[in-house]
Amino acid sequence: MLRSSFQHFPQIVAAEEGINASAGRVLASEGAFDLQLEQKTQTRAAGYYDGTVIDSKVVKPLPDFNTRLYGGYRIADGAFPVYEDEYQTNGGGEFKVGAIFSLLKDRDIDERRHALRDSRLALSQSELEARLVQLSVQHRAMRGYLGWLAAGRALEVHRDLLTLAETRQAGLVSRVEDGDLAAVYLNENQQYILKRKGRLTEGERLLRERANRLALYLRDDEGRPRIVEGASMPEGWPELGEVPADGMDATIAAALAVRPELGLKDADIERARNDLALGQNALKPRVDLNLEAARDAGGGSITREDTDAIVRLELSIPLERRQGRGKVAESRAKMAQLTLERQLASDRIAVEIRNLSNDLLAAEQFVTLATEEVAQATLLARAEAERFANGASDFFLVNLREEAAADARLR
Predict the structure, then answer these.
(1) Helices 322-389 + 260-282 axis angle, to 10
(2) How many other C-beta atoms lie within 10 A of the C-beta of residue 337?
(3) Quick one: pLDDT at residue 1?
(4) pTM of the model
(5) Of 216, 319, 357, 361, which sits with the fewest C-beta atoms within 10 Å of its C-beta?
(6) Cα(99)–Cα(80) distance, rounded to whole angstroms?
(7) Is residue 327 within 8 Å of residue 237, measured between CB atoms?
(8) pLDDT per residue as tens digits for the range 348-398
(9) pLDDT at 155
């Protein structure tokens, strides 16, 4: 039943699709580092000069130091004015390779890496949310199964109680016919029969209702709900395990280490920390280093025959920096808020586990007492029935003992 709901319950399947959607967002974020082909073409459509230049390059972004590796080819044809002489190439064009590194701003994080980290954290949250859904569904499935099982056990009690009354009715008929008993006892016992039939009918209705609810979680191989029949009810109760009364601190610590709710809070805190890093990055000046090597091929000017080694340094300093300061303040407040929320969630889980342990221990004691009560009530009911058969007991007391025993079995 648990396996069936885990594999086919729509809410769990939908949560798995949520993971796939988050994985798609991660893939899209990784696309910011995909290889790119860039090309620029410039030509003079009119005027004295007719120069045309085609500049193509392949760019590969890398995460570390916001690195951009590139390799390209440029070729020019026609005449250019002297102030555009840098466009000129020899006959075979110019080949170049280079790299750009961010030394301060964008060195450790930028918009692309922020988006990638955030999407990966969102993916981990989707997995944790799916785990929460799975646990919730499995919990409801187990409660549904135990409710169905309890309704079946209760129905057995009502059926046994009715059987006692119907069996007694046959004996009462014989005694009345023999003149050993007043006929009013037949009417009174018939009243008990009708009352117990009513309880049996209600028990059957409840069992069907519980079976219908259980069908939400018990599904066939195609995912369709499957209604269980009362004949398929197992003999005993499932083994539910034990929670030790001692060592509670270790139990709580083990639970806190794996609870998805805390994992979700941790991911939220990490996402806020990611936002903080991006805000701090916006406060830094930009210092980009560009290293490039270029060489022309083919015939042309002697000034373009050697390999050029070029070093460029780009500097940009934010002066007011309000955007960065605002982002830093927002992120720090968000982290403080989430940290407090996580502490509260952790405290609630600890209290929840202690209460569950307390409830389970009390339930075990209750079951022990109820079991003893069943034994005593059953003994009294049998003894009272024998006394009535021997004419030494009251008919009302016999039924009272039988129903007390039945109530103890139900508890």
Answers:
(1) 180
(2) 13
(3) 67
(4) 0.83
(5) 319
(6) 28
(7) no
(8) 999 999 998 888 889 889 989 999 999 999 999 888 888 877 777 777 888
(9) 94
In our burial notation (b when 16+ CB lie closer than 10 A, e otherwise), range 47-63 reads: eeeebebbbebebebeb
> Alpha-carbon distance 58 to 276, whole Å?
33
CB count, 10 Å around CB of 330?
14
List the beta bridge partners of residue 292.
98, 310
The length of the chain, given as a count of residues: 411
- Look up tokens 């994080």; give the residue: 109
CA torsion through residues 291, 297, 301, 305, sign: positive
Q: Which of 90, 53, 52 is nearest to 297 (CA)?
A: 90
Collect contacts of 358-363 with beta carbons under 8 A, ≥24 apart. 360/242, 360/243, 361/243, 361/245
Report the alpha-carbon distance of residue 12 to residue 245 in Å, rounded.
33
Half-sphere exposure of 231 (CA within 13 A, CB side): 0
Q: What is the mean pLDDT of the chain?
A: 90
Lowest mean pLDDT among 130-134, 317-321, 335-339: 317-321
C-alpha 343/C-alpha 329 separation (Å) is 22
Chain segment 60-117, per-residue pLDDT in tens: 999 999 999 999 999 999 999 999 888 899 989 999 999 999 999 999 999 999 999 9
Do 240 and 2 meet the contact criterion of CB atoms below 8 Å apart? no
**CB environment 171-192: b (16+ within 10 A), e (fewer):** ebeeeeeeeebeeebeeebeeb
CA atoms in the 13 A half-sphere facing the CB of 401: 21
* DSSP 8-state symbol, 221: T
What is the pLDDT, as a whole number, of residue 4?
A: 77
